[in-house]
């Protein structure tokens, strides 16, 4: 149908595609007496003893099922942070239908219009809602102010802005035209719906998982804002759009992938499964390393947020020559760290503990130890090449790592030896390396289509060689 086709192409081509300027959201300092600190203190005060109600939302309708649950504050189990409910099968199916029904129109909206919604959401979180989002992340997930700031403010805002920018800029990548015909790439959203399973530990990731696919697949703005404003524990029982996406432990991810595969025969499209799991961040210390950097970098990485980050350092490889010094300094710092402060307002603590953390760690069947535990392997200084090999082969994970050395040749050598051991975004058991926030991430949620339009009639069926 040519007229329809032309309409389509016009809309697409007349749309101005200038580069979109966005910057990283600044990370605020929260010094005593600062404006941001006062606002945060007020927001924390407002949440004292409060329980936020979080219904399921299907289409535009808020629904409560009978299966009511509570999210408890990790450092005060008598504080019910939120009340939510589990959706049942029927409700989930309804949500999928609502989402698929809305998709068609949404997909035809210019990307710039869709992106605008995300820019606006980012501005709202950066401005009027910032203190509230931070306070909820601190109380709901047990984060210190700086951990909440880098997650719920900086990273979430960056995700929204950069992904929207990248979606707009992708449209500039168009195929070449050839004689007598015009070629156009349409960056369509995926056909179907996306199901996102958010982790308990990151507001930014919850927001990104549910949000970014929506730039392409379907409008869920209320949902995104809402989820960005609550703690992420509730996301799992809320419907989202299109196929399957996950961020959690490797055991859960494998189970979901198998379940998806089992139903392969009934899908209209091949499902895309994207997952990011844990890591076992390694710190490789060469004899040429600067000891203070090793110590401070490792303390922060291993122990902030109680070691509950995918990037938490869990193994450290130290040359015997530096070990006495490093050990002494690690112990000195550890003695000064304030952990497990239960008052939500305290700004002095470095990390917080979860009340049931020890039990969770000792009961866990997960290969990943998810807590403030750092193992140290001391090696004979001259054997560092063997150690690089050992690091590459010790863990099934490949997410993050650090090389501490002041010797350029060693850094290059280690970089090559560990090339497959750490792409942030995940490889091996750490996930499907999607690079959230990078220019290629939005492509995961698209199904690009090329249109060729011929302007010259085709009059001859014979090829020239036929004479
Ligand atoms: C824990 O939460 C309960 C319920 O909101 C509250 O009454 C109590 O003061 C809190 N305890 C502490 C130590 O903050
Ligand atoms: C969140 O927690 C899970 C464990 O439940 C862990 O595997 C994952 O790496 C964590 N995510 C991040 C971004 O730290």
Brief summary:
By secondary structure, the chain is of the alpha/beta class. It contains 14 helices and 16 strands. Strands 12-11-10-14 form a 4-stranded parallel beta sheet, with helices on both faces. A 3-stranded mixed beta sheet has the order 1-5-4, with helices on one face.
Considering the chains and any ligands shown, give keywords for the structure:
alpha/beta; Aldehyde Dehydrogenase, Chain A, domain 1; 2 domains; 3-stranded mixed beta sheet; 16 strands; globular; disordered N terminus; binds 2-acetamido-2-deoxy-beta-D-glucopyranose; oxidoreductase; signal
How is this structure best described in words?
The chain contains 14 helices and 16 strands. With 467 residues, it is of the alpha/beta class. The protein is globular and about 85 Å long. The N terminus is likely disordered. The site of one 2-acetamido-2-deoxy-beta-D-glucopyranose (NAG) has 12 residues, from loops.
């Amino acid at each position: 149908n040519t007229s329809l086709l032309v309409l389509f192409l016009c809309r697409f081509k007349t749309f101005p595609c200038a580069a979109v300027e966005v910057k990283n959201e600044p990370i605020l300092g929260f010094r005593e007496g600062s404006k941001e600190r006062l606002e945060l203190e007020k927001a924390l005060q407002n949440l004292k003893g409060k329980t936020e109600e979080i219904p399921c939302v299907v289409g535009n309708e808020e629904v409560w099922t009978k299966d009511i649950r509570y999210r408890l504050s990790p450092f005060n189990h008598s504080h019910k942070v939120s009340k939510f409910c589990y959706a049942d099968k029927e409700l989930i199916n309804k949500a999928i239908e609502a989402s698929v029904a809305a998709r068609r129109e949404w997909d035809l909206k210019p990307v710039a219009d869709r992106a605008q919604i995300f820019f606006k959401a980012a501005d709202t979180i950066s401005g009027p809602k910032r203190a509230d989002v931070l306070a909820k992340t601190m109380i709901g997930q047990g984060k210190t102010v700086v951990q909440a700031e880098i997650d719920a403010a900086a990273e979430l805002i960056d995700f929204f802005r950069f992904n929207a920018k990248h979606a707009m800029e992708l449209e500039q990548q168009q195929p070449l035209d050839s004689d007598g015909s015009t070629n156009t790439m349409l960056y369509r959203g995926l056909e179907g719906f996306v199901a996102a399973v958010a982790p308990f530990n990151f507001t930014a990731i919850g927001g990104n998982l549910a949000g970014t696919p929506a730039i392409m697949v379907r409008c869920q703005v209320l949902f995104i804002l809402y989820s960005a404003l609550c703690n992420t524990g509730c996301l799992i029982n809320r419907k989202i759009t299109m196929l399957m996406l996950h961020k959690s432990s490797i055991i859960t991810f494998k189970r979901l992938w198998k379940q998806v595969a089992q139903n392969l025969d009934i899908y209209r499209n091949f499902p895309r499964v994207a997952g990011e799991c844990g890591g076992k961040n390694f710190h490789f210390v060469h004899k040429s390393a600067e000891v203070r950097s090793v110590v401070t970098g490792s303390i922060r990485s291993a122990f902030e947020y109680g070691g509950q980050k995918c990037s938490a350092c869990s193994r450290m490889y130290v040359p015997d020559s530096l070990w006495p010094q490093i050990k002494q300094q690690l112990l000195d710092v550890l003695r000064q760290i304030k952990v497990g402060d239960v008052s939500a307002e305290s700004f002095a603590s470095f990390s917080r503990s979860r009340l049931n953390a020890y039990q969770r760690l000792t009961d866990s069947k997960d290969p990943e130890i998810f807590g403030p535990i750092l193992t140290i392997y001391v090696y004979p200084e001259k054997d560092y090449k063997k150690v690089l090999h050992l690091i590459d082969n010790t863990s099934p994970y490949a997410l993050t790592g650090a090389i501490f050395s002041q010797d350029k040749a060693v850094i290059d050598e280690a970089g090559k030896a560990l090339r497959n051991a750490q792409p942030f975004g995940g490889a091996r058991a750490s996930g499907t390396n999607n690079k959230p926030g990078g220019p290629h991430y939005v492509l995961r949620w698209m199904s690009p289509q090329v249109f060729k339009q011929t302007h010259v009639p085709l009059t001859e069926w014979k090829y020239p060689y036929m004479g």
